[in-house]
Amino acid sequence: MRPIQMVDLVGQYQKIKAEVDQAVLGVIQSAAFINGPEVKSFEQELAAYLGVKHAIGCANGTDALQIAMMALDLKPGDEVITPSFTFVATVEVIGLLGLTPVFADVLPGTFNIDPADIERKITPRTKAIVPVHLFGQAADMAAVMAIAEKHGLYVIEDNCQAIGSDYTFPDGSVKKAGTIGHIGTTSFFPSKNLGCYGDGGAMFTNDEALAKKLRRVCNHGSDVRYYHEVVGVNSRLDSMQAAVLRIKLRHLDSYARARNAAADFYDAAFQGISGLTVPARSANSTHVFHQYTLRVADGPGSGSGRRDALKKHLEDRGIPCMVYYPVPCHLQAAYKSPRFAEGSLPVTEQLTREVLSLPMSTELDHEQLTHITEGVKSFFN
Predict the structure, then answer these.
(1) What is the Cα–Cα distance from 294 to 91, expressed in whole angstroms?
(2) 9-250 CATH choice from 3.40.50.1820, 3.40.50.460, 3.40.640.10, 1.10.274.10
(3) Mean pLDDT, rounded, of the chain
(4) CA 34 to chain centre
């Protein structure tokens, strides 16, 4: 059996090696390293895939979130509602801009932000909502957008984990995750479903004026070289990464199918195991399974002892697994606030004690999946 990786990037590369090598060599030979033709082509192809008017590349997913907030002219002290159960980058940029993070709880099934708790957290200082499409499926965007419209708020989608996912509205219309709010953002970190071979990110919008502002902020606050209208940043998607992403974008839907096949295998293997909950699949969103995340009930009392014991049990058998995320943002030292003391977000805090993500990759084969599932089942027998 091949060694099991959380994400098998080498195996994935081998299947597209000839295309990637030729594309990267082409960039080197052209010497168009910054804002070259590959970047422009990728932006156009990504926008077409997503069904959105504008896709703007940038240096990474964290920058994408920061630039989005800068383009919306959010000011220090403005409140931004976001889940605490997310990677810290979502909250980090709020802090960097002097904004105030307001943490909402999540739903125990999908792990995505709870619209009812968003409504409870709105104050006169609230200016934006940042739903995170966690682990591969979209948050309840119909509810989020209704709340935003009711209160006159911006919506910035953190779509770093669900690119390619389809969200279906109550009226039957369908949009890609990341294209529903005022601005969508994503990361092309190598382990993402659409990942490059370094850092990269992008923003999406249907608003012409916003697209212009996003491009301006990315480029030192400038539309015309050496003339700077606003304070900006230096955040560019380089041409080599764009060349890789153009190739991988063509495979994105097949990657999602492979991930769903692996998730289906896991689901079938784990049916009926007491104390083990497989990921819920939203009725409104397709799942692209950036992560396959189990919940391991600990029994009476609190703590994460059983989850941690399963983690060690698997690692002892050569099966990698990860806890995303062991400490929620509202309990991190950098973001602690009396308003969000321990116990204030009960679902989030329970999830951090129970979640465990198994290997999820486009390259998982039957032998590997069997070894992983047998390893999990042997713990509960």
Answers:
(1) 24
(2) 3.40.640.10
(3) 97
(4) 26
